[in-house]
Design brief:
The complex is a heterodimer of chains A (541) and B (321).
Chain A lengths: L5 E11 L4 E12 L4 E5 L6 H8 L8 E9 L2 E2 L5 H7 L4 E4 L3 H4 L6 H12 L4 H14 L5 H4 L9 H13 L5 E5 L7 H18 L2 E6 L2 H7 L2 E6 L2 E7 H6 L4 H9 L18 E13 L5 H5 L3 E13 L3 E6 L5 H8 L7 E6 L2 E2 L8 H6 E4 L13 H6 L11 H14 L16 H13 L5 E5 L7 H18 L2 E6 L2 H7 L2 E6 L2 E7 H6 L4 H9 L8
Helix pairs in contact in A: 4-5, 5-7, 7-8, 8-21, 16-17, 17-18
Chain B lengths: L5 E2 L12 H7 L1 H7 L2 H18 L1 H4 L21 E2 L6 E2 L10 H37 L1 H15 L3 H15 L2 H18 L2 H16 L2 H8 L4 H37 L11 H9 L8 H27 L6
Antiparallel strand pairs in B: 2-3
Helix pairs in contact in B: 3-5, 3-13, 5-6, 5-8, 5-9, 5-11, 5-12, 5-13, 6-9, 7-8, 9-11, 10-11, 11-12, 11-13, 12-13
The chains are: A alpha/beta (541), B mainly alpha (321).
C-alpha cells in the first residue's frame, strides 16, 4: 500500500503561558498525496501557519506538540531528535516563505546560496552544483540564469526573488513543499506568474505541496483540494471546486460569500448624469529627490517622478476607486489629496477652492476632508482612550463645550459605526483589527466631512471582517452622502465599491472611467494585463 | 463547539471591577519582578537607602553640621563603640572631628541623591526635547543636534562635567560660588548626560512620526508642538525611563567623583564623594571606617539602581518575555 506523502493525524499544539494554556491546533488531520497541491485556507489565527510550522517542527517557544502524529511517507517524524529533524528540512521538506526579501541572505550572491544549499543535501562537486543551480533557476523562470548567479538578492525584484526561493526549495528534490503565503507579498501580475511556476514545477516532479494562504483566489487557481481551518480546527476538506461552489459548513459558506469577486457587477445605483464634481484633481505631480551618488548629482540631483500629471474628478456622493500595483504612486496621490504632502505641481480643488498644500487650508476646509488608513494598528495612538481618539478632529465650532457633551457626541459616532458606546473608555489594544478600523472610521466621521480618502482601508483585515467594513462604508455613504476616494490594490474590492475607477501605472493614470465599463471592456493594455492576472474565485477550474 | 478553548490554568480572573492594586500585582511586569530575587533585594536595598537619606534629619542620631554637638574627644572612635567621654554610641564610628559616620552618610547621601536625581531630570528634559526636535524636524535641525551628540558621546562624561564646572567657576562671582555650587554641579552633570537620551528619543520619534496616527492628527489640523506633546512623547517615554534609571546611578557616581576631586559640593555640605575624599586620608593610618562606610553606601546605591534599571529594560521589552 502506498502512503500519502504527508499525513497529519490528530495534531494538537498548545501554547502554555503563566495564566492559561492556549490551544492553537486542536485535532488537525489531513493527507497530501504525491503530486497533489492542497490549499490550507483560513483567517488570521486559524492555525494554518501553525500547522506548517508543526510539520517542519519549528514551532516558536513555548508552543509544543501535545499529541498527534505527522507522518512523512508513512514514517512518523514527530519526536525525532533535533539533528534528524534538521536533516529533513530542505532535504525532504522544502519551504517557501512569504517574504522573499528576508528569506534570502542579503550578503551572499544568489549563486553562493544556491550552491551551498545544493551541496548540503546532494553529493555534488562545486561545478556540478553550479550547473544544477543554473538548471533550477532557468526552470523557475529566471532568464540568463548563468549570468545572474553572481547577483545579490537586492538586485532582484520581489517576483524574481520568490523564483529563487522556489528554486532553493526544490533544489534537493524534496517530497513535500510547505509554501506559507508564497505570493501574499507580491503584486497581482507577479502573483499569477509565481503561481504558474510553482504549479508547473510540482506537476513535473510529482512533489506534494501544502499551500498555506488566506487568499481563496490563490487556492482556486492552484490547488486540487482545500482544507478550510478556523480557530485551530479543520472545518471542511474537499475538492476546490466543490468547496467554492457548494460549501457544506456554515462557516465556509460565510467565508465564500464574504469574498468579493471581480466578476460581480456592482449592485449600485447608477450615478445620475450631470452631478457637479465635489473634488477635482488637476495635473497632480510629485517628484522625490533621490540621494546623490556623485558630486555632479549633488548639483543636479536625480529626480523620481512618483506621480505624473494625474487628473480626475469625483462627483458628489460617489466613490472613485484608484487601483495600481505597489510603487504606482496611488498612496502618494492620496497623501497629496489629503494635504499631508505638498504636490510638486498641479492642484486639488474642492468645489473650486484649492485644498492641496496644507498651509493654505482653512479650518473649515480641513474639516471637510478626512482619511482612513491601511493599518488600524498604527493609525490609533496606543496610549489614548477611544474617546480621545474619536474626538481628536473635533475642535473649533464643532466641539461642543463640556466633557458630558463630548462623550455624548463620541457615543453617537460609535453607534454610527455599529459599536457600543462603552468602547470609548477602552484603549486600542483591547479591540480586534476590524473594530479598530471602525474606530478609525468614527474618528474620520467626527468632523462631519464630505469627502473621505480611504487608503487600502481593508487590506490588513480578514475577508469576513473586510466584508463588514465595506458594508459599513457603503451604508454610511448612503446615510451621510459621503464622497469616497478608495485606494486599493484589490480589484475585486474596488469593483464592489466604486462608481468610477482610475488605473495607475508608474505614476501615470493610464485609464479612467465608469467601473463596469473599465472592468468589462478595458482599453489600456496594462489594465487588460492586470485584469487577466487576477487570481479570483470566479476562475475556479 | 468551535473555537480555541482556553484551558483552565492556575488563575483565571476577569479584568473588570478590580482595584488598581490588584491590576498592578497581576501584571506581567509585577510577575517578572516577583520572580527575580536579585531585583527584589535590589529594590529593598534601594528603598531603605533612599528613605533613610530622605528622612536623614529625623533618623540620624547626631547632627553632623552642628558644631556645638561635636565631641572632639570622640574623634577616631571605631565602629560599635560607646564613648567613655560623652556616653554617645557610634554605630559606624567617627571621623577626625568626632562626627558620627552614620549621620554624615545619611546627610551626605541626601546631597548625592538630590544632585543625581536633579541632574538626571535635567538631562532627560534636555535630551528628550532635543531628540523630539531632531527626530520630527529631520533635515538641518537633525544634522546639527546629532553631530553635537556624536561629539559629546566621544568624550567621557566626567570630562564634560569638569569643563562645564571650570567655566562656571570663572563666570560666577566668588561671593556666589558657595551657594551656587550645587546648582552648577547639577547643570554640569545633566549636560554631560543628555546626549544618550537625545539619540534614543530621536530614533523612536522618527519611527512614531511616520505612523498613521500622526498623519490622522495632522489631517485633524494639529500643529507640530501639539502632536509632539500629546502623541509622540507618550510613545517614546518607555526607553527613556529605562535609560533614566541607569543614568541616575551614573549621575550619583559622577557627583561623587567630582566631589572626590574637590570640584563638587562645598565641604560645608558634604556628599558621599566628599566623605570618601576625607576618608581616604586616613585609610593607611588604620581608621578604615571613615572611608569604608561612605564608599559601601555609594556602591550599594549605584549597584541597586543599576540592577533595577537593567531588569526594567528587559521587563518592558515584549520581545524578551
Amino acid at each position: 500500500m502506498t502512503h500519502p506523502v504527508l499525513s497529519v493525524r490528530n495534531l494538537v499544539v498548545d501554547f502554555p503561558d503563566r495564566r492559561q494554556t492556549f490551544r492553537a491546533l486542536d485535532g488537525v488531520s489531513f493527507d497530501i498525496a504525491a503530486g497533489e497541491i492542497v490549499g490550507v485556507v483560513g483567517e488570521s489565527g486559524a492555525g494554518k501557519s501553525m500547522t506548517g510550522a508543526a510539520i517542519i517542527q519549528l514551532i516558536q517557544s513555548p508552543g509544543r506538540i501535545v499529541s498527534g502524529e505527522i507522518l512523512l511517507n508513512g514514517v512518523p517524524i514527530t519526536g525525532l531528535p533535533q539533528a534528524e529533524v534538521a536533516a529533513l528540512r530542505g532535504k525532504r521538506i522544502g519551504l517557501i516563505t512569504q517574504d522573499p526579501l528576508t528569506s534570502l541572505n542579503p550578503l551572499f550572491t544568489i549563486g553562493q546560496q544556491m550552491i551551498e544549499t545544493i551541496r548540503r543535501h546532494l553529493p555534488l562537486s562545486e561545478s556540478q552544483a553550479r550547473t544544477r543551480a543554473i538548471d533550477l533557476l532557468s526552470e523557475a523562470g529566471i532568464s540568463d540564469a548563468e549570468d545572474r548567479l553572481g547577483a545579490y538578492p537586492h538586485q532582484f525584484s520581489g517576483g524574481m526573488r520568490q523564483r529563487v526561493v522556489i528554486a532553493l526549495a526544490i533544489a534537493a528534490e524534496p517530497e513535500l513543499i510547505v509554501a506559507d503565503e508564497p505570493t501574499s507579498a507580491l503584486d497581482v501580475s507577479v502573483q499569477a506568474q509565481i503561481i504558474g511556476v510553482l504549479k508547473a514545477l510540482c506537476e513535473r516532479r510529482g512533489t506534494a505541496v501544502m499551500m498555506i494562504t488566506h487568499d481563496m483566489g490563490v487556492v482556486a487557481e492552484t490547488a486540487d483540494r482545500v482544507v478550510v481551518m478556523n480557530k485551530g480546527r479543520i472545518v471542511e476538506t474537499g475538492k476546490v471546486a466543490d468547496i467554492i461552489r457548494r460549501p457544506s459548513e456554515s462557516y465556509t459558506r460565510g467565508l465564500i460569500a464574504a469574498i468579493p469577486s471581480v466578476a460581480d457587477a456592482r449592485d449600485r445605483k447608477p450615478v445620475a448624469a450631470g452631478v457637479a464634481p465635489l473634488v477635482e484633481v488637476q495635473g497632480l505631480c510629485r517628484d522625490f529627490r533621490l540621494p546623490a551618488r556623485t558630486l555632479r548629482q549633488r548639483f543636479a540631483a536625480p529626480v523620481l517622478r512618483a506621480v505624473a500629471d494625474v487628473t480626475f474628478e469625483i462627483p458628489r456622493g460617489t466613490t472613485f476607486g484608484l487601483v495600481g500595483e505597489s510603487g504606482s504612486g496611488k498612496s502618494t496621490c492620496a497623501r497629496m489629496i489629503a494635504g499631508l504632502l505638498p504636490p510638486s505641481s498641479g492642484e486639488v480643488l474642492m468645489e473650486g477652492a484649492r485644498i492641496s498644500g496644507r498651509k493654505g487650508m482653512s479650518g473649515d476646509q480641513r474639516r471637510r476632508v478626512q482619511m482612513i488608513f491601511q493599518d488600524p494598528y498604527a493609525s490609533l495612538n496606543p496610549r489614548w482612550r477611544i474617546r480621545d481618539i474619536v474626538a481628536e478632529p473635533l475642535h473649533g465650532p464643532n466641539r461642543r463645550a463640556g466633557r458630558r457633551d463630548l462623550e455624548e457626541q463620541v457615543a453617537e459616532l460609535l453607534r454610527k459605526v455599529r459599536m457600543e458606546p462603552d468602547a470609548m473608555f477602552k484603549f486600542p489594544h483591547q479591540f480586534s483589527g476590524g473594530q479598530r478600523q471602525r474606530i478609525a472610521i468614527a474618528r474620520a466621521l467626527s468632523s462631519e466631512p464630505e469627502f473621505i480618502i480611504c487608503d487600502e482601508p481593508t487590506s490588513a483585515l480578514d475577508v469576513s471582517v473586510q466584508a463588514q467594513v465595506l458594508d459599513l462604508m457603503a451604508s454610511l455613504q448612503e446615510e451621510l452622502g459621503l464622497t469616497y476616494l478608495l485606494i486599493s490594490h484589490d480589484l475585486a474590492v474596488v469593483r464592489r465599491m466604486s462608481d468610477f475607477i482610475g488605473v495607475m501605472q508608474r505614476g501615470r493614470l493610464v485609464e479612467k472611467g465608469d467601473t463596469d465599463q473599465v472592468f468589462d471592456a478595458p482599453q489600456d493594455p496594462y489594465t487588460r494585463m492586470l485584469l487577466d492576472s487576477i487570481l479570483d474565485i470566479s476562475k475556479v477550474a | 463547539m468551535q473555537g480555541n478553548q482556553v484551558l483552565p490554568g492556575k488563575t483565571t480572573s476577569g479584568s473588570r471591577g478590580r482595584s488598581l492594586l490588584a491590576k498592578i500585582s497581576d501584571s506581567d511586569v509585577a510577575y517578572s519582578w516577583w520572580h527575580s530575587p536579585v531585583v527584589v533585594i535590589a529594590t529593598a536595598v534601594l528603598l531603605v537607602l533612599v528613605l533613610a537619606c530622605l528622612f536623614a534629619p529625623l533618623i540620624a542620631p547626631y547632627d553632623p553640621f552642628d558644631p556645638a554637638s561635636l565631641q572632639l574627644m570622640d574623634g577616631f572612635s571605631p565602629p560599635m563603640t560607646t564613648s567613655s567621654f560623652s556616653g554617645n554610641h557610634y554605630l559606624l564610628g567617627t571621623d577626625a572631628q568626632g562626627r558620627d559616620i552614620l549621620s554624615t552618610i545619611l546627610h551626605g547621601g541626601r546631597v548625592s541623591l538630590f544632585v543625581g536625581a536633579s541632574a538626571t531630570l535635567f538631562a532627560v528634559a534636555l535630551g528628550v526635547g532635543m531628540g523630539l526636535l531632531a527626530g520630527y524636524r529631520g533635515g538641518f535641525a537633525d544634522a546639527v543636534v546629532m553631530r553635537i551628540v556624536d561629539v559629546q558621546l566621544s568624550f567621557p562624561a566626567i570630562l564634560i562635567a569638569l569643563l562645564v564646572f571650570g567655566v562656571a567657576r570663572s563666570v560666577i562671582p566668588p561671593s556666589l560660588q558657595e551657594s551656587a555650587a550645587i546648582w552648577v554641579l547639577i547643570f554640569a552633570i545633566g549636560l554631560s548626560n543628555w546626549a544618550q537620551f537625545a539619540r534614543t528619543v530621536r530614533g523612536a520619534t522618527m519611527v512614531e512620526s511616520h505612523k498613521d496616527y500622526v498623519a490622522a492628527a495632522r489631517i485633524a489640523g494639529k500643529g507640530p508642538v501639539k502632536i509632539l506633546a500629546t502623541h509622540i512623547l507618550p510613545n517614546v517615554m518607555g526607553p527613556v525611563l529605562v535609560i533614566a534609571t541607569i543614568s541616575l546611578a551614573l549621575a550619583v557616581i559622577e557627583e561623587s567623583t567630582l566631589s572626590f576631586l574637590g570640584v563638587g559640593v562645598p565641604p560645608t555640605q558634604p556628599s558621599l564623594g566628599t566623605l570618601i575624599r576625607i576618608g581616604q586620608q586616613f585609610l593607611f593610618s588604620g581608621e578604615w571606617w571613615i572611608l569604608f562606610f561612605p564608599a559601601l553606601t555609594l556602591v550599594l546605591l549605584a549597584l541597586s539602581v543599576n540592577l533595577l534599571g537593567d531588569w526594567l529594560r528587559d521587563a518592558i521589552n515584549p520581545r524578551l518575555r
